[in-house]
Structure formats: structure tokens, C-alpha cells
Amino acid sequence: MKNKFIRLVLLFISTSLLAQVGINTPNPGSTFDLRGSFATPLQSVAANTAGDKNQSVINFTSSGTFTLPAAISGNGNFVGREYQIRNGGLSNTVTVQTSNAETIDNIGSSISSFNVPGGYAITIKNTGATSGKTWMITHMTDTNVNQSNNGQVIYSGNNGDTTKTTIVGNFIFRFSGGSPSAVTPQIAMINTPGTTVNVNVGVNQLYSLDGFEYANNALSFTAANYSTFRDIPASGVSLAPNELNIIHLIDTTNGKYYRVTFYVSGSSAPYTFALIAEKF
Predict the structure, then answer these.
(1) What are the backbone angles phi and psi of residue 241, rounded to the nearest 5°?
(2) pLDDT tens, residue by residue, 92-104
(3) Residue burial 34-47, b: 16+ Cβ < 10 Å; e: rest
(4) pTM of the model
(5) Domains of the chain listed by start with CATH number
């Protein structure tokens, strides 16, 4: 009886140990414990691609659509499967879409497709459901380390200097040439857009003599005009000395918000031109 009990205990212990798998460690601390590097498949594509069981990381080198596989009921259900999808070009248009009538969980709502912004990568995971919300986005990040979230340029002079610029996100900002009372806030894009980029603008203008003014504007950037600088405000364009302009820009195409401050300080030359741009 005692021997049977000992064998039963040993069997229980060995079964518990086998419940955890370790690689490069004799004492795994998790169900799967890997002590070392590992590799997953990396595929670069330049056209429309359908997801399958052999893919893991997909890098789009040009515009295209990634179609998620249709759900499987019962044997073969791939609950937990993940894809990492990267838009490898700022001017690419990369779309992720579901199959059949399936949807993606979008924090309380359902969508059947979405665009991955240029330079971004997303991780999408299968929920195991066979209809409805079969996928969910678990991570999204900007992979372009050269795209700053803020920038500034401050200089002194009699006139605005068009060579003094700051780049934030995919936009470049500057003062136009000319003296205060004629100088204007300007914007252009730095990379050719794969599709029209629409920007809504709201401008707060503060001046000690004229008080407060607010103006709206809408700008569209295409492959034909993206690099052409244009005035940001639609009215009250010029900045007088000691006039503060705080500009709110919403890139509705890529879902980005920018706040840009233009300020000309001083009552006589040389003036101080201050430009501060932020991306949120």
C-alpha cells in the first residue's frame, strides 16, 4: 500500500512538471519558458496578400491589401493566431480586411477593414469566434524613428526665413518670406502621399491691439501638390509683430492631431521668429 502511494505521488509530480515546457532552462517558470532568441517568418510583399498559417510578420514595401483568413469552426479553429502587419512606406496605402462578413473588434464597435498608416505596424489576433468579431487589434506603433513628435525653430531677423523649417510627422512647417505684417504660417508634406491627405485647420490668433480671432480652413495634399508650401490660415493670414498664432491641425486621413505655434516677437527689427510644432 505504501509503495502504491509513493508511486502515485511520483506520478503526480512528474505530471505537474510535464505541464511546463522549458527551452534552455531546466526549471521553467511558465507553461512555455524560452531562455534565448527565437525566430518567426518574415515576408516582404508588394501586392495584395491573403493570410495563412505560414505567415507571421508581413512587411508591405508598396501599397496593398492584407486579407485575414476566414474563421474555422471546430477542428482547425485558430484562436490566438497573430499577424504583425507593417506599412513599410510613408506613401503606401496598406489596408487590412476581413473575409466573408466577419469583423474586427474596434473598442466597442465593429469594422470590416482599416488602413495601417505609413510607417506603422499593427498586431492583430484571432478571437476564436466563428462569426462577428473574429479579430482584434492588440498593438499599434510607429516604426519610423526619424518621425519626431515635436520640433522647433527659433531665430532672429528682419524677415521670415524660408530655409528655417521644422519637420514633425509627415509635415514641414515654416514662416514665409517677408517682414512682419506680411509673413505667414506655411505647411507642406515631406513624402509623396499614396492617397489624398485631408487636413482640417483651426487657427487661434491673439493680438494685443485687435484682440482674438478664430479661423477655419481645409487643406488637401496630393501627389501633385504635396511639396508646395501654402498658407495655413484661410483668413487673417499675415502675422503682425507680437501676434501669437496657435494652429490646430487634424490629419483626418491618418487620424493624427498636430498643434503648431507661430509667434513673431518684438516691436522693431530684428524680430524673433518662433515656431514650435507638436504631434499627438
Answers:
(1) -55, 140
(2) 889 999 999 999 9
(3) eeeeeeeeeeebee
(4) 0.56
(5) 17-142 (no CATH), 150-279 (2.60.40)
